[in-house]
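[Meeting: bench + compute handoff]

Bench side (C.D.) handed over the final construct sequence. Compute side (W.E.) agreed to return the predicted structure before the next meeting so the bench team could plan truncations. Sequence as handed over:
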Amino acid sequence: MTSAKTIKRIESWTWYLIFGGLFLLVFAFIGSSGGMGFNWYLGGLGTVATIAGAVLVWVRSTMTPQS
């Protein structure tokens, strides 16, 4: 059983991580004026954030709200 506050927090972080990670991925592909190392760093960070958001979708699906 999970409280409504925890469920709301998980849902918020899920979307922050997914959309933030996708934004970083797009920014890494577009921003080629920086160094290649910086673009790889942004791309890797975006990938990790997006995957973490996807894992939180699964975590949220296993939670049951407290009555």
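W.E. noted at the follow-up: The mean pLDDT is 90. C.D. will use this when planning the next construct.
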